[in-house]
Amino acid sequence: MRQPRALVIGAGVGGLTAAAALHRRGWSITVLERAARLEPVGAGISLAPNSQRALDAIDLGDDVRALAAWQGGGGLRTPGGRWLSRMDSATTAERFGGPLVLLHRATLVDLLVSRLPQGVVRTGTAARLADPGAAGRPARVTTEDGDHEAELVIGADGIDSAARRALFPDHPGPRYAGFTTWRVVIPAPDRPFEPHETWGRGRIWGTQPLRDGRVYAYAAAVAPPGGRAPDDERSELLRLYGDWHSPVPDVLAAVAPRDVLRHDIRYMAEPLPAYHRGRAALLGDAAHAMAPRWGRAATRPSRTPSSSPTIWPPRPPTPPTRWPPTPATGCPAPWTWYAARRAPPA
């Protein structure tokens, strides 16, 4: 019997996790990524124990746990340095069933790619969802080299998802959350520090260690949308956080202006009517963009495709295009299951 086919649009964390999960279940996978190459972009990403357990489904959980860097104390502080609350890594790991792992996003992408066969990820390939398919026909995706059909298409193409617009053209899309963020990854400062997040009035700063010896720092501030510093973003950070407690000044002293990433935060204020249509399903920011203040925006895509075997069935019956439709939607049953599993809050 021919392998069922799946096309994944987007080679981010969610798309690659979905591809790895489907590959382990016997699907033929192609990941279509418009970027010319998978470059080490982005900054840090936090993986809580529930995300790590989801990654166990693709044999990646232990690799991620081995990258845990937080040892000892840490907590929440005021800009002047006073501790508002304290915690330690051992107690946190015991309470939640594992360590909190912070790693560079590029490291996680490399680990996910290692779980896929050579040639599955096709970079430099812009893809358009031309037809979501239905119970009686496959979905169709168009690229520069022609049309591609599959029993499943996963739109994991980010917050400005073209796949989402193709499925739900009347949806207004994401809305500005009211704050902007900055992120940097630098060598560790000379003076040791305890990991912390610091809360000021309308501003947040965090400094966290990475396993490779570098430091991930992030900041957020209430600001109008689309803003940019009049000089450079490092200077803006100095104006906003330069007088905060140590190690914030040390981190800023080590930052080069070109290394500062700034992004406005957007979220899906109006939920989609569904996370799928026909044989096409949405994943991650394409489906439910959320602000990082809830501590799960970046990791929810990794939990979605790998954490439940009922979401991705091992293989359809022969022939692959004849899943019985559900009465309410006319869609193949597995994609209806997927929508039902994703609808309640995690």
TrEMBL record:
InterPro entries: FAD-bd, FAD-dep_Monooxygenase_BioMet, FAD/NAD-bd_sf. Keywords: Monooxygenase, Oxidoreductase. Residues 6-295 form the FAD-binding domain. GO terms for molecular function: FAD binding; monooxygenase activity. Pfam families: FAD_binding_3 (PF01494). It comes from the Bacteria. Residues 311-327 have a biased composition (Pro residues). Coiled coil: none annotated. Residues 299-310 have a biased composition (Low complexity). Residues 295-328 are annotated as: Disordered. This is FAD-binding domain-containing protein.
